Each structure stands twice: as C-alpha cells, then as structure tokens.
Amino acid sequence: MQRRQWVQTLACIAFAKLLPQNSWAGRQAEEALADSVRTALSQALRDDAALPGQSDPAWLSRQQPRLLAHLQQRRAAVLRDELASESLRMAFLQTVWYESSRAGLEPELVLGLIEVESGFRKFAISSADARGYMQVMPFWVRWIGDADEAKLFQPATNLRYGCVILRHYLRVERGDLFLALGRYNGSRGQDRYPSAVLAARQRWRAE
Predict the structure, then answer these.
(1) Model-level pTM greater than 0.70?
(2) 125 is in which domain, residue-wise?
(3) Are residues 24 and 117 in contact, defined by beta-carbon separation less than 8 angstroms?
(4) Buried-exposed string 66-95: b where 16+ CB fall within 10 A, e elsewhere
(5) Is residue 3 situated within a structural domain?
(6) How many structural domains does the chain have?
(7) What is the pLDDT of residues 155-178, one digit of tens each?
(8) H or E stretch including 180?
(9) Are 103 and 167 in contact (CB under 8 A)?
(10) Predicted local distance difference test score (pLDDT) of residue 189
(11) CATH of the domain at 77
(12) Averaged pLDDT, 125-150
C-alpha cells in the first residue's frame, strides 16, 4: 500500500511539472541561520500546540463554501483530486486553521498566501523548485527537518513548514508583514507580491 501511494505521488509530481507555473513564484534566499535559530525552528516544527477546540466551527462553515466558489470560478483542477469533496475541503481548512493558529498567524493570511503561491495545488512545483500549497523551498527540510523533501507534498507538513517559516520572517523583519511576505517569496522590498497576498487575505476576511 505504501509503495502504491509513493508511485501515485511521483506520478502527480511529474504531472505538476507539466502544468503552467505560478507567476508569483520566487526564490527564498538560502540565508545562514544561527544555531540557536535553527534549533528553535526545528523545535517549532516538532511541537504540537493544544489549541482550544482545535478548530473554529464558524470559521470553517464560512470558508468551506467560499473555497469551493473560488475553485469553481477558476475551474481549478484541484476540484478533481485533492479538494474534490466537501470533507476534503473541510479537512484542508481545519489544517490551515490549526497550523496558522499554532504559529500565531491569521488563518485568512495563510489562505491568501496559498491562493497566490500555489492556487491551492497540493503538488505545485515552481521554477525555483518550491513545493506544495505554501511553496516551501526544499532547503528548509535539510536545515530544520529530516531532509525528506517528499514530505513537502503532504498537506499538514507543508502547511506547518510554511507557517513556521513565515513566522520566522516576521520576527526577522520585526513584525513588518509587508517585508516578511517579500522575504517569503524571495522578492523583499518589491510591492507586487505582498500586495497580492494582502488583497487575497482581505477577500478571505470578507463577511
């Protein structure tokens, strides 16, 4: 069974390489990390936070039809596979809520980043080799993980890395979200990418 899943994953990755790449894809700088920072980030990946209720039912019920409408409007291929059913979309949104909350991020911000970075494609691969929903660069799993790059296509793992990395960049930029988003995308100081993510966040915030 595990071998079959691995073969299916490889097939999906091969197919993803044939798809048009997201125009927003950047290249995060492979910056040197102090040992203390590397240790803290590694710990942040491993720790599981006990969040009250584990999810916000009102938030989930509001975002699930919104996610469906967003995908339908764009005729997204993900409706045929990883986000095809309501239960899969709810599971995805629960993971977004959990991982963003444990990292101290706004869930709508994370949804906006995913929308811009990958278009909600689980197997998205950028021209810079960033992977998955939050377009995580493989060097992160070598720096602070177990070096298994294939795990970046697992939704929970990808979202955890992405949220931990964005929180790290917020600390580096002393809370400046505009600069942190630019650093996340590898376009620090440029307006186009942060503005797109913040505009998407506002749409996911709308009542």
Answers:
(1) yes
(2) 51-205
(3) yes
(4) ebeebbeeeeeebbeebbeeeeebbebbbb
(5) no
(6) 1
(7) 999 999 999 999 999 999 999 999
(8) helix 177-185
(9) yes
(10) 83
(11) 1.10.530.10
(12) 93
